[in-house]
Amino acid sequence: MHPSLICCICLDDMTNDTAIVALPCGHCFGEQCIEECLLSGSTKCPLCQKNYRHIHVRTLYLPLEEDCDKAYKEKYNELMKKTNALTKHYEVLKDLCDMTAANAPIISRVNELVNQMANVQEELKGKATTDKTVNPVVEPKHRKKGKLCKLFAGMKL
């Protein structure tokens, strides 16, 4: 709600149904009061005494209080919808962060195991190439499986 505008000539409130005019000096009055001043022959602003002519008087169009309330309510509702949508997105992201934090030890352990397996595979490849150079006979598959079983048996999951 905007503060009341009072005409300095008649000291009445300039309500929504009163036309408000501005003089070139920037002072505002009720349109009817300025018209009466002009009809009486005065061409000076009642406040600062600067000269003006009728063609310099400008009507001001201020929004009505009801229009402002409606526009503010619409803007408020729009902002509330955006706020609710952002709150939902925040809650989803927070849940994902919480789940990630809770699973961090598991993820770390899985990464360790993957690295261990990669190291073991490199070791096995290295042994296979050295074994082939010394003894070109390929070991039976069941023996390789035995080594891997022993390797996994020693790991803690």
TrEMBL record:
Q: Which UniProt keywords apply?
A: Metal-binding, Zinc, Zinc-finger
Residues forming the RING-type domain are 7-49
Matching PROSITE patterns: ZF_RING_2
- Name one molecular function that GO assigns to this entry: ubiquitin-protein transferase activity
Q: Which GO terms describe its biological process?
A: interstrand cross-link repair; protein ubiquitination
The record's listing under InterPro entries reads: RFWD3, Znf_RING, Znf_RING/FYVE/PHD
Q: Which GO terms describe its cellular component?
A: nucleus
Q: Under which name does UniProt file this protein?
A: RING-type domain-containing protein
Q: Which organism is it from?
A: Mucor velutinosus
